[in-house]
Amino acid sequence: MSAPAAPTGSGATGPAPTGPTTAGPATAGPTTAQRRRGLTLQELVLVAALGVVFGFLYWALVQAWAWLQLAMGPLGDLAQHVLIGGWMVVAPLALYIVRKPGVGIVAELLAATIEVVFIGSPVGPMLLLVGFVQGAGAELAFTATRYRRYGWGVFVASGVTAALASLALGTVRFGWLTQDWFAYRVGLELVSGIVLSGILAKVLGDALLRTGVLDNHAIGRAARAARRGDGGDPGAAPAPAPQQAGA
Amino acid sequence: MSGVGFGRPLAHDSVLHRRNPTVKLAVLLVVSTVLLAVVDPWTPLALWVLALVAVARAGRIPWRLLLRAQLLFGPFAVSILAVNCVTRDGPVVGALGPFEVTGPGLAIGLSLMLRTLLVGTLSVAFVLTTDGARLMTSLHQHVRLGARPTYAVLAGYRMLEQLPERWTTIRLAQAAREPARARRQGSAPAWLRAARTGRGLPDDAARQDDAAPREWRARRGGGTRLPVSPRALARAAFTLLVVTLRQGERMAVAMETRGLGAGPRTVHAPVTLDRRDAAFAAVTVGVCVAVIVAAARLGVLASWGSTFG
């Protein structure tokens, strides 16, 4: 991308002039689209890209993990609770980047869709329901802060809510309640949700932010606003996006 | 199998290839939802055998490929069987290592295992007979999926197609740049040493005749020499994420500049939806219902907490 990034990174959430307009002929849409509640095309494609990469990585992980699971014999089924957080991480990560209601659910649904209809999964279309429930669970913690706070505590809480939602669904699907190991399942899943979903999402998001690839998204705008001093009035001085995003 | 990529259907034509993708997806959804309630082993077993024969005939999917798919899902399925055998209450019928196997556990475990294989078989048949772009077009046409989500997923589909190649590129690039690994293996190949120091590349390369190409060929072909430490894999995975996000941004800008989502759209190659699709749905769901009814008549059908018949 040699041209300057489209002025979506203007941070014009207030009644400010519409962006820096350094890239003359580029799209005029984003400034109005940005104010809409819905997702812009750019955000949708970002979420799709996240879904693709995580769908692919999950698939690759499953290939390796399946044999481990078999090797662990009857205990193998518990391995899924150790890893479950990894399957849910895309929801808090997408929320961290885009910061709009519903993004967590959309991200999980897209990742599940890509796994089911493009890669193929033994779980089948049920994975869509799993994705929806996990996404909704992960999003609950962010909804509680009205999508305004992105500290470690919120991510930990998101891991807990995602794990609980996923547990509830698994109990219905596989009848875990009538099995002997329910307490272990709960414990493992909570730990996994906190570490592999909540905390990992924050770590990944911060690492991605440092690469500059997220500069045109809400997370990048918030970081620039914070660097300027306070995040109180991001619309006051719309800064042009740093140019390291191109390459 | 090497010719089959992510989201690419088998190259030939068949009855299943020609069916409407949305209808196929809906049938898959209905069948796997109905089966959620079934926990006896016989119903999913009958459906699994029927499904294997049906997709092999109607989709002209080679048996070798179907067998591979079963092996792929096998460990997952067997582990579900194993855990259910030993974790459910009931009369003990045997032992698995230190654990006691119960009758109900064995029955439910077998049922869930066969259900996994059945749904896995149907999912693979769907993927092997459905073109991703055609599916999204159909969803846009027939389920009124919005233009923006449709094209976002299509962009994702394109990224997915390129993902394996991209992964290999990243892995090769990181391996070539990692000095520690080369040191571990004794001396680095001359062309790599030269490339790092920036000196003597032409001469060395000339003296080594075609050592460099051979080295690359070895890596490309076998792939066994790439580092497989979790650290190396995690680094490659993160790079894959960054590169793909960047590609996504470029695609989004390209689509926006072309005015996507700015007004009503027409569809380039419309997907048909006709009576044959209705017949397909009726036959598939009908067979599923017939098997369940037959199982109930024979008194083998069971659901959570109760047995029918």
Automatic annotation (TrEMBL), chain A:
<protein>
    <submittedName>
        <fullName>Thiamine ABC transporter permease</fullName>
    </submittedName>
</protein>
<feature type="transmembrane region" description="Helical">
    <location>
        <begin position="182"/>
        <end position="201"/>
    </location>
</feature>
<feature type="transmembrane region" description="Helical">
    <location>
        <begin position="78"/>
        <end position="98"/>
    </location>
</feature>
<dbReference type="InterPro" id="IPR017195">
    <property type="entry name" value="ABC_thiamin-permease_prd"/>
</dbReference>
<feature type="compositionally biased region" description="Low complexity">
    <location>
        <begin position="235"/>
        <end position="247"/>
    </location>
</feature>
<keyword id="KW-0472">Membrane</keyword>
<feature type="region of interest" description="Disordered">
    <location>
        <begin position="1"/>
        <end position="32"/>
    </location>
</feature>
<feature type="transmembrane region" description="Helical">
    <location>
        <begin position="44"/>
        <end position="66"/>
    </location>
</feature>
<keyword id="KW-0812">Transmembrane</keyword>
<feature type="region of interest" description="Disordered">
    <location>
        <begin position="225"/>
        <end position="247"/>
    </location>
</feature>
<dbReference type="Pfam" id="PF09819">
    <property type="entry name" value="ABC_cobalt"/>
</dbReference>
<feature type="transmembrane region" description="Helical">
    <location>
        <begin position="152"/>
        <end position="176"/>
    </location>
</feature>
<keyword id="KW-1133">Transmembrane helix</keyword>
UniProtKB/TrEMBL annotation, chain B:
<dbReference type="InterPro" id="IPR051611">
    <property type="entry name" value="ECF_transporter_component"/>
</dbReference>
<feature type="transmembrane region" description="Helical">
    <location>
        <begin position="278"/>
        <end position="304"/>
    </location>
</feature>
<feature type="region of interest" description="Disordered">
    <location>
        <begin position="200"/>
        <end position="223"/>
    </location>
</feature>
<dbReference type="Pfam" id="PF02361">
    <property type="entry name" value="CbiQ"/>
</dbReference>
<keyword id="KW-0812">Transmembrane</keyword>
<dbReference type="InterPro" id="IPR003339">
    <property type="entry name" value="ABC/ECF_trnsptr_transmembrane"/>
</dbReference>
<keyword id="KW-1003">Cell membrane</keyword>
<feature type="transmembrane region" description="Helical">
    <location>
        <begin position="106"/>
        <end position="128"/>
    </location>
</feature>
<dbReference type="GO" id="GO:0005886">
    <property type="term" value="C:plasma membrane"/>
</dbReference>
<protein>
    <recommendedName>
        <fullName>Energy-coupling factor transporter transmembrane protein EcfT</fullName>
    </recommendedName>
</protein>
<keyword id="KW-0472">Membrane</keyword>
<keyword id="KW-1133">Transmembrane helix</keyword>
<feature type="transmembrane region" description="Helical">
    <location>
        <begin position="65"/>
        <end position="86"/>
    </location>
</feature>
<feature type="compositionally biased region" description="Basic and acidic residues">
    <location>
        <begin position="201"/>
        <end position="218"/>
    </location>
</feature>
<feature type="transmembrane region" description="Helical">
    <location>
        <begin position="25"/>
        <end position="53"/>
    </location>
</feature>
